[in-house]
C-alpha cells in the first residue's frame, strides 16, 4: 500500500476509485463473452437483437453525442462501462427516450452483456457499490466540464478541451483530430478554432 510522508495511509483519489470500480466489474462480468471490435466513427449499439446491453469497453476512446444535433456531451477512454443509465429504463419498463448515442473516436474493443445478465452478476458479486461509484464520478465529471464550457469564451473552451484531450492515452490522441474534437463539443466555427490554435502554437503553448 502507498504511503505519504509521516506514515499516513495513502487515500486513493476519486479517479483512482472510479478506475478500481470499473476494473472490478470487468473482472467479474467479462467471462465467456466474445469481444467486438469497431473502427473510429462507428456507432456502438446498446440495443442488440432488440435487447438492451451494457458495453464493457476494454480498448479505445468513445464520445457521447446528443441525438438531436450530434453535439458531443461527454467522452472517455478505456476501461469504461456504457449503458448504465439506459439500463434503468429497460429494467423498469419505462418509455425509451434516450437522447444520446455513442460513437468510437478511435478503434475500440468492447464486450456486450445483456442488462438482465449484468444485473444478475451485480447481485451475486455485490457490485452495486462499484456501480454507484462510477455513476457519481460521471456526474462529478460532467459538472466540472459544464463549469469549464458553459458561458465561457472561445479561448477558455478550447483550452479546457485541449487539456481534456491531453489526458487521453498517447495512442488514442494520435487517432484524434484536435480541430474536430473541439468543434464537435462546442459548435465553434472552424475558422475561430483554427485562429485560437494558431495563436497558441505561435506562443509555443502547443505543438500541432
Describe what you observe in this structure.
This protein has a domain at 14-125: Sandwich (Jelly Rolls). It has helices at 14-29, 84-91, 115-124, 128-149, 154-166, 170-173, 178-186, 190-202, and strands at residues 36-38, 43-44, 47-48, 51-59, 61-66, 72-77, 80-82, 100-104, 108-114. It has 8 helices and 9 strands. Strand 5 and strand 6 form a beta hairpin. Helix 1 (14-29) packs across helix 4 and helix 5 (154-166) crosses helix 7. Mean pLDDT is 84; it is low at 1-12. It is elongated. With 208 residues, it is an alpha+beta fold. Helix content is 46%, strand content 21%. The longest helix has 22 residues, at 128-149. Residues 154-208 form the IprA winged helix-turn-helix domain. This is IprA winged helix-turn-helix domain-containing protein. Pfam families: HTH_46.
Strand and helix map with partners:
Blueprint: H1 14-29, E1 36-38, E2 43-44, E3 47-48, E4 51-59, E5 61-66, E6 72-77, E7 80-82, H2 84-91, E8 100-104, E9 108-114, H3 115-124, H4 128-149, H5 154-166, H6 170-173, H7 178-186, H8 190-202
Antiparallel strand pairs: 1-9, 2-8, 3-4, 4-7, 4-9, 5-6, 5-8
Helix pairs in contact: 1-4, 5-7
Amino acid at each position: 500500500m502507498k504511503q505519504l510522508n509521516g506514515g499516513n495511509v495513502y487515500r486513493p483519489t476519486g479517479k483512482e476509485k472510479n478506475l478500481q470500480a470499473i476494473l472490478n466489474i470487468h473482472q467479474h462480468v467479462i467471462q465467456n463473452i466474445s469481444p467486438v471490435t469497431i473502427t473510429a466513427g462507428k456507432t456502438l449499439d446498446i440495443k442488440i437483437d432488440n435487447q438492451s446491453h451494457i458495453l464493457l469497453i476494454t480498448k479505445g476512446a468513445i464520445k457521447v453525442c446528443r441525438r438531436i444535433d450530434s453535439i458531443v456531451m461527454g467522452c472517455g477512454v478505456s476501461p469504461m462501462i456504457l449503458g448504465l443509465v439506459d439500463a434503468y429504463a429497460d429494467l423498469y419498463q419505462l418509455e425509451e427516450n434516450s437522447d444520446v448515442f455513442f460513437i468510437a473516436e478511435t478503434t475500440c474493443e468492447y464486450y456486450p452483456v445483456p442488462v438482465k445478465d449484468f444485473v444478475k452478476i451485480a447481485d451475486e458479486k455485490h457490485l452495486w457499490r462499484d456501480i454507484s461509484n462510477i455513476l457519481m464520478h460521471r456526474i462529478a465529471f460532467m459538472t466540472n466540464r459544464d463549469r469549464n464550457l458553459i458561458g465561457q469564451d472561445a479561448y477558455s473552451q478550447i483550452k479546457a478541451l485541449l487539456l481534456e484531450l491531453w489526458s487521453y492515452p498517447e495512442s488514442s490522441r494520435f487517432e484524434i483530430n484536435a480541430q474536430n474534437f473541439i468543434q464537435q463539443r462546442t459548435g465553434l466555427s472552424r475558422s475561430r478554432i483554427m485562429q485560437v490554435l494558431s495563436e497558441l502554437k505561435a506562443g509555443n503553448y502547443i505543438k500541432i
